[in-house]
Amino acid sequence: MARIAIFLFFFFLFLSAVVEGVPKAKKVKCKDKKFPQCYKSQHYCPDDCLRTCVVDCSSCQPVCTAPPPPPPSPPPPPPKPRKLRSPPPPYIYSSPPPPPPRVYSSPPPPPPYIYSSPPPPPPATVEPSPPLPPTPTPPSSPPPLSPPPSSEASGQKKVRCKNRGYPHCYGMELSCPSDCPSQCEVDCVTCSPVCNCNRPGAVCQDPKFIGGDGITFYFHGKKDRDFCIVTDSNLHINAHFIGRRNVDMKRDFTWVQSLGILFGSHKLFISARKTSTWDDANDRLYISLDDETILLPNQEGATWSNSTSYEGIAISRSRKTNAVEIEVPGNFKIKAVVVPITEKESMIHKYGITQEDCFAHLDLSFKFYALSGNVSGVLGQTYGNNYVSRAKMGVAMPVLGGDKEFASSSIFATDCEVARFSRELDGKESSVEAAAYANMSCGSDMEGQGVVCKR
C-alpha cells in the first residue's frame, strides 16, 4: 500500500507540473463602439492562438491573427569622416656656400687709351611709356540668323499690281505660282498671281486655244507655216508656227514664233529670235512697225514714243528683257513674252530639243476692243455672232481642224479662205464692245498638245 501511495503522489505532482506549463488563453475584447452588442464583451482566444487573437466585432467571435512583425532595426550610423593628416613640409637642404673666386697672379691690364676728343654724350634716358589700358572685349553677339529661303531664291518671280484703279491691290508684291514660277502677272481684281498661260486670252505653249465662248480646243497647224488666227474688217493677225516632227504621233509639235498684224494702213511684226542656249538676260525679242525696227532700252517700263502718224500706238517693256506690251487704242492690246523650251519640258514631252536650237517662241495675251460679228480665224471665229464650236467636246483633247481653211501664204498675207480684212471697221455687224470680251491669251500647252488661247 505504501508503494501505491508513493506512486500516486508522484503522478499527481507530474500532472500539476504539466498543467502549469500550458499557457493560459488570453482574454480579448471588442473595442469598436459601432458594435454595441459586442463592445467590451470578453472572449478567450481559441486553442489555435491562445495568446494572439482579436475579436471580430461584426461576428462577435475571437479570431486568430498573425503576430505583428518586429519593428525594423534602426539604420547604422554614418561613418565618421576621417581627418586627413597634412603632409610634412619638404625638407630643405642647406647647401654649402660657393667657394671664393680664384685670384690669379697675372699683371693688371694696361689702362685704357684716353683720346683728346670730348667724351661722347651719355645715352638719352627713355622714360617708359605708361601701360596701355586693356582693350574692352565687346560682348559676343549671336551669329545673325540666315533669312528663310525667299521665293526669288527658289526661282519664283515676284510680281505687283500696276493698276492704280485697284488701291486695295496696287503695288502689293506677290509670288508666281509653282506651275509658272517665272511667267505670271497679278490679276488686280482678285489680287492674286495668275499664270500668263492661264489668263483670259492666252496663246501659249504647243497651240491650245480657249475661245471667246470659253471652250478649250487645240489647233496644231504645221511647222514652218503661217495661219490666220484673227481676221476682221479692221484687224488681221497671222501667226508663224515653228516646231519639230513627232514620228510617233504623226504630227508636228508646234509653237508660235512670230506675229504679223495688219490694222488700218500699218504693219506690226513681233518675233522671237532663234537662239541655241537660253539666257533670260539677253533680249531675244524683235519688233518692227511699218518696216521700222523698234528699239527699246533694256529697262522695265521703257516706252517707245510714237509720232502722230501712228495713231497713239504705245509700246513698252513689261520686264527688262523679252517682254513687251503693245496697245492700239480702240482696237487691241497684246502682251508678248519670249520663252524657250527647257530641257525638262523636252524630256517630259519628248520634244527632242537639241543644243542647236531651244525653240524660243512667243507666249501671247490678247485683248480686243472692237470686233465685228463677222470676225473669223482660228481664234477670232469664237467671237462671231453665230459661232458654234466644231471641236469634239467631252474628250481629253478636243482638236479643231482647218489647216487649209486658215492657212496663209506669208506672215502679212490676207489670202486665207476666211479673210475679212478691208482696213476699215465694219460697224453694221459690230458684236464686240470693250467690256463684252475678256482678255485672250495664247501659247503652247505644257502637255505638248497644241497652241492655246484662253479668255
TrEMBL record:
Coiled coil: none annotated. SUPFAM superfamilies: Formin homology 2 domain (FH2 domain). Keywords: Signal. The keyword Cell inner membrane does not apply. This is Uncharacterized protein LOC103500222. Residues 65-79, 115-150 have a biased composition (Pro residues). Residues 1-21 form the signal peptide. Residues 64-92, 115-159 are annotated as: Disordered. The keyword Signal applies.
